[in-house]
Each structure stands twice: as structure tokens, then as C-alpha cells.
Design brief:
Blueprint lengths: L3 H4 L12 H10 L11 E5 L5 H9 L4 E6 L2 H14 L4 E5 L12 E6 L8 H14 E12 L5 H13 L6 H18 L5 H14 L3 H6 L11 H9 L3 E6 L6 H4 L6 H7 L3 H12 L3 E8 L17 E4 L2 E3 L9 E4 L5 E4 L2 H13 L4 E2 L7 H13 L2 E4 L17 H8 L4 E3 L5 E3 L3 H9 L6 H12 L3 H17 L6
Parallel strand pairs: 1-2, 1-4, 2-3, 4-5
Antiparallel strand pairs: 5-7, 6-7, 8-12, 8-13, 9-10, 10-11, 14-15
Helix pairs in contact: 4-16, 6-7, 6-8, 7-8, 12-13, 16-17, 17-18, 18-19
């Protein structure tokens, strides 16, 4: 079977929020238990070339990962990469959702990214049916989709681009014509008319995306943005329940209800999905990453700092110097170069410990003195200043004499890929050939001296210069979460 994804490969990347350790952390905050992140069974439906599953499998050898996709060429690439990286815990196959076999069994985590809004209604129904059939009693499902009303503007882009390629059949020619149309139209819309300005800004944002992604997203034969309330109702019909959005900032209102949004809560009258839909109307949300769970069991949408005790925290907290107005405060530089000052000794000590472990994490068990510190840590998570996970990620920050990098990252670098999957399930850009070559050498067979000689030969740099930089180079690889633990 061939598809448009065989003709124009989709740029498959790691989806950080879909990691079981991050999904289960959110479930914990809502009072639910979830399967262990490092000993679980994971299904990804519509996995493309398996990039997301490859990254998961590389860090969790005791878990089992299964993925399928309609694009045979993408699956073949994923299988080849898995074999080269020695990932025996990953199974990829070319298959149609409409013909998914009963033999798949049950899974602790089910992932369907970039699929629900881009397939016809019968396939959407088959997708939700499959999630409902395969998700275990305590499992979690990750589902992404574009939403209404925020995507109304993006639908205008689709109308314009569809018109520009209506007489063009070749995929490469369609991509080129689409790009040319985008460049032309963003100059055609007036900067003085508010409506045209909004559309032009939308086109500018679209131009920042990879053309191949636009080809399969906005230009797909099916492009069906959804109301979150409709998606939740669809899931309910298959024994599933809306838990939350997997992006922390969207969960603020659950834990810390604001005066600003009190009118929205009153209109929702205690119906949480209804509140989410009203917020989408109010803030023109255009995309969601929803976590579903089984209907059974509690969902407790309130802040409870004691739940943090079972989680791990990771974040950048760099101690700084107080200014005149902060004479008695502890100051930290945090994510995005923001500053935070506190006079709470217990909180400052905890932030120093979290920052000192970064990019690793620390267990919060026994570390939170009470609700004041706990609520602050939870707020920092919701602000994006730190991340929470149910278990630590298995990478090393201490390079040994014969360092070992992730086998997946080594293979990706060996094949010339510039975006490598890290062991904390994110992507790292390594643009320089020398940097990628260095990572390929870290297979545990070479001493630091041998690495120095090889890199001096590869780069034409004097041996003593490379030797002087070796510790820094290895530290950089370690802090990128690329060294195996």
C-alpha cells in the first residue's frame, strides 16, 4: 500500500509530552495512578517512521513498544534505524487502522499524534474504537488534534493554498507552488485592515513551518479541526474520559482557579469539559494534546501538594545576586532568563538542589516542607519553569573514561541527521559535522585519549587543542542527555 506520506515524507520528530513519565506525572496530580514509565507497554497509532517510539525505546529497554502506520517507506526507515541501534523492544509494521488486528492486545499507554484531525470520519471512529479497545484499566491515551474556533483562520490558509495547486498533480510541484503562493499572498494583504492583518500574520506563521508538514497538515485531503467537547464526547462513547491537556499551562485553572476566569467557570456550572470548551471559545485555542483515561476511577481537579511527593522535578534555577530591593531575598535566574526572588529559606534550598541537578532531576519525596512550598513548585510547573515526571530519565551526567552515547543518537548522527533524540525524550540540533562525528565515536570502545586522536584527525585541529577541549566536549554531550546511564 502506498500513500501521500510515501511520496512526500512527513518530518517525524519526538513528541516530548507523550512520554509515559510525563503523562503519568499529570495523572498523579489529578489523583490517579498510572503504570510505571520504564516497565510498560506502549502503542503508537500512525507512528510515521517511528521517531517518537525509537526515542522511547532507546531509554526504556524493559518496556515494549509497538507502532504501525499506513506509509510503508516510513515504516521501513524506522525498522532499519531500530535494527541499527539494536532496539529489540520495538515492533513497527505497515498497517491500516481500519484493519487493526485483535492480536495487538492491551497497552499501558496509547499515542495518536497528528492523526485525528487529518483522517475521514470512519477512520476517526476506528481510531477511537482502537484506543478504547486497547487501553488498560489504569492506562493513559495521548491524542493530538487541531481545534475550533482557533483554526478558522488556518482554514482560510487552506482555501488559498488549495486553490493555488488545483491544476498541479506532482507532489514536489505542489509543494513548490504552495510555497510561492504563500510568499505572494502575505504581501497582498493590507497592513491597515485589521482582518487582513490577522490573516497576513497567520500566513507569516505558516511560512515558518516546514513545507512538507504543511503539505500533509493544512493541505491534506482531510482537514477537520474539532471542538474539544465533541472529541471528549466521542471518547466517552468508547469508555474513555477526558483527563486534561498534556501541556502544563493549560491546567492552571484546575489547580488554581482565578478571579479572571470565574465567569467562565460559572457558565460551565461544574462541567469540566464544558469549561474547557468555553475557554477554547474565549482564547481561540487552535491545538490540543489531550490525555484520556478510563471512565472508572476518580479525577480530583484541585491542588494537593502532597501528590508532588511521588514525583521528580527538573529545571534550570541558577542562583543570582539580589538587587537593592531584594536585599534579604534569594534570587534565581530561571527558564527563559526570567528572575525569581524569595525569602523562603526552604523553597530557596529546594530550588538550589533542583538547579544543581539540572538537566537531571531530583525526587521530591521528603523535600517539600509544606503547602506554601508545594504550591509554588506546582505553579512553577504550570508556568513552564520546571518539569515533573514520575520517574527519573536514565542518562548520565558523568562521562567515564570510555563514554557511551545513546545508540539511537549515534545511529542518527551516523546517517547525517542533524536532529538527534536525547535520553530525556527531546530533540537536540547538532548542525556541525564534527559534532555529529564525535557522537558516533562514543560507543564505549574508545578512551578519552583515543577520542582526542580521532577528533584531531577528523577536524585537522592540533592534538593539544582537542585534548584541552575534551572535558568540555564530553560535558556538553552529557548535559544534552545523550550519555547512557
Amino acid at each position: 500500500m502506498t500513500s501521500a506520506y510515501d511520496e512526500v515524507p512527513y518530518p517525524s520528530l519526538v513528541h516530548a509530552g507523550s512520554h509515559p513519565a510525563r503523562l503519568s506525572a499529570l495523572a498523579c496530580l489529578y489523583g490517579r495512578t498510572a503504570p510505571p514509565a520504564w516497565r510498560c507497554r506502549v502503542l503508537e497509532i500512525g507512528c510515521g517512521n517511528g521517531a517518537n517510539l525509537l526515542s522511547l525505546a532507546a531509554a526504556a529497554p524493559h518496556s515494549q513498544f509497538v507502532g504501525f502506520d499506513l506509509a510503508e517507506t516510513a515504516i521501513a526507515r524506522g525498522r532499519a534505524m531500530a535494527a541499527a541501534a539494536g532496539l529489540a523492544n520495538l515492533e513497527l509494521s505497515a498497517a491500516d487502522i481500519l484493519q487493526a488486528p485483535d492480536s495487538l492486545g492491551e497497552f499501558d499507554y496509547v499515542i495518536a499524534h497528528g492523526l485525528y484531525s487529518w483522517v475521514p470520519t470512519p477512520v476517526r471512529e476506528a481510531l477511537m474504537l482502537l484506543i478504547g479497545r486497547t487501553l488498560k484499566a489504569d492506562g493513559l491515551a495521548f491524542l493530538s488534534y487541531v481545534t475550533l474556533p482557533g483554526c478558522r483562520l488556518r482554514q482560510i490558509m487552506r482555501d488559498v493554498l488549495q486553490d493555488s495547486v488545483r491544476n498541479i498533480t506532482g507532489p514536489a510541484e505542489r509543494v513548490a507552488a504552495m510555497r510561492a503562493c504563500m510568499e505572494f499572498m502575505r504581501t497582498a494583504w493590507s497592513g491597515t485592515d485589521p482582518w487582513q492583518t490577522a490573516v497576513r500574520n497567520e500566513m507569516n506563521a505558516l511560512l515558518e513551518r516546514i513545507p512538507e508538514a504543511i503539505f500533509h497538515d493544512e493541505m491534506n485531503e482531510t482537514y477537520a479541526p474539532q471542538f474539544v467537547s465533541d472529541v471528549a464526547a466521542h471518547a466517552e462513547r468508547h469508555g474513555l474520559r477526558y483527563l486534561c491537556d498534556c501541556r502544563p499551562p493549560i491546567n492552571v485553572e484546575a489547580f488554581f482557579p482565578s478571579d479572571e476566569r470565574k465567569p467562565l467557570r460559572e457558565r460551565a456550572a461544574g462541567d469540566w469539559v464544558r469549561l474547557e470548551q468555553i475557554q477554547d471559545f474565549a482564547f481561540l485555542t487552535r491545538y490540543r494534546e489531550t490525555i484520556f483515561c478510563r471512565r472508572e476511577g476518580i479525577i480530583d481537579r484541585r491542588a494537593d501538594w502532597t501528590r508532588l511527593q511521588s514525583l521528580h522535578a527538573q529545571g534550570q534555577f541558577i542562583p543570582g545576586e539580589p538587587d537593592d530591593a531584594e536585599a534579604n531575598a534569594f534570587v534565581f535566574r530561571v527558564e527563559g532568563n526570567a528572575r525569581f526572588a524569595t525569602s523562603d529559606v526552604a523553597l530557596a534550598d529546594l530550588l538550589r538542589r533542583i538547579g544543581g541537578a539540572n538537566p537531571g532531576s531530583i525526587p521530591l519525596a521528603g523535600e517539600i516542607a509544606g503547602p506554601a512550598v508545594g504550591d509554588t513548585i506546582l505553579r512553577f510547573y504550570l508556568m513552564g519553569w520546571l518539569s515533573l515526571q514520575s520517574e527519573p530519565f536514565p542518562f548520565s551526567l558523568t562521562p567515564g573514561e570510555r563514554p557511551v552515547a545513546s545508540p539511537l543518537a549515534r545511529q542518527q548522527a551516523l546517517q547525517g541527521e542533524t536532529k538527534l533524540a536525547t535520553l530525556h525524550h527531546k530533540m537536540m540540533e547538532v548542525a556541525e559535522p564534527a559534532g555529529r562525528h564525535f557522537i558516533t565515536l562514543l560507543d564505549g570502545t574508545r578512551s578519552r585519549r583515543e577520542l582526542t586522536i580521532e577528533m584531531a584527525h577528523f577536524t585537522g585541529t592540533p592534538l593539544e587543542t582537542v585534548a584541552a577541549m575534551m572535558n568540555k566536549s564530553l560535558s556538553g554531550v552529557a548535559r544534552a542527555a545523550l550519555l547512557a546511564g
